[in-house]
Amino acid sequence: LSGGRQAARKRPSMLSFDEIGGQERAKQELMEALEFLIRPDEIARFGIRPLKGILLTGPPGTGKTLLAKAAAHHTDSVFVAASGSEFVEMYVGVGASRIRDLFREARQKAQKTGKNSAVIFIDEIDVIGGRRDGGQHREYDQTLNQLLTEMDGIQTNESPRILLIAATNRKDTLDSALLRPGRFDRHIAVDLPDKKGRKHILSIHAAGKPLGKTADLDKVAEETFGFSGAQLESVLNEAAIYAMREESECIEMHHLTMAIDKVMMGEKTDREATK
Ligand code: ATP
Questions:
Q1: Which residue, by CA, sits nearest to atom 17 of ligand 1?
Q2: Atom 8 (ligand 1): residue with closest C-alpha?
Q3: Whose CA is nearest to atom 31 of ligand 1?
């Protein structure tokens, strides 16, 4: 298979929890929460309030989107995704109708594929779910109200069942209406990985890359304190580019060291630019 065909075969929505490095606690908590989707009869027998929304909180690039995709895969659900910023429009009402479309799309996609459930993922939920402040952002209010209406309308016995997963790195700014019981009332922290997690993420992204004898991923994990999963993926990618430029057979330790510096410097200049 060519690279392109291979990428097409490995559909991103079919990602499994095994392909996510570290985040053991988040994975565990998420899988426990997903029981609600997998065992609806028991949930109903015990009279447990159905789970409608899970909020993933944590810094950028830590795998929140990956976790949402894996949740869809784990529960054999269709996956529909949007970002909060897509709902911000000049015209009043457009954001709200996009929310309606998103839920419709999820239901239709599930019906078409014969699945019993759908996971709707909304990244950057803070953009539409920020605290309401007396009518200053009327357009956002309508969008948020529509989201709340859709969530309240989710039925346990409907087919397909709908689960919302939202992500934010600014939980403190969210409107309390979103966090009420029956809405996003299950919160899972997705933090920066520890050394073991970093090693795991590095090995996932090193798979399929030619690593030389000197390449020591343990050492890379040690030297990348504070790096996110996305940054660790960049380290391996940059190291591969350095190796290729040098016409080296494999990725060696000095390529990795240069890559760590580059990703760290990139981070610094990004931060300085946003000061
Ligand atoms: P954002 O808040 O910026 O949307 P996010 O938390 O949703 O970020 P992802 O989109 O899930 O982050 O991750 C971005 C990329 O970083 C992934 O496609 C993957 O390559 C890499 N990555 C991040 N975390 C992990 C992880 N735990 N394991 C493996 N790869 C990871």
A1: 230
A2: 61
A3: 229
> Ligand 1 center to residue 69 CA distance, Å?
11
Quick: pLDDT tens for 201-233. Answer: 999 999 999 999 999 999 999 999 999 999 999
State both tokens at 56.
């993933």
C-alpha of residue 64 to centroid of ligand 1, in Å: 6
* Closest alpha carbon to 225 in 252, 262, 193, 256: 193
93-105 pLDDT, tens digit each: 888 999 999 999 9
Cα(41) to centroid of ligand 1, in Å? 33
For residue 67, the CA-to-ligand 1 centroid distance in Å is 9
Mean pLDDT across the chain: 88
**Ligand 1: centre distance to CA 21 (Å):** 10
Pocket probe mutation, ligand 1, options 15, 16, 65, 86, max atoms within 8 Å of Cβ: 65
pTM for this prediction = 0.89
Respond yes or no on whether ipTM tops 0.85: yes
Q: Which residues line ligand 1 (CB under 6 A)?
A: 20-23, 60-66, 123, 167, 169, 201, 204, 229-230, 233
Structure tokens at 173: 């700014």
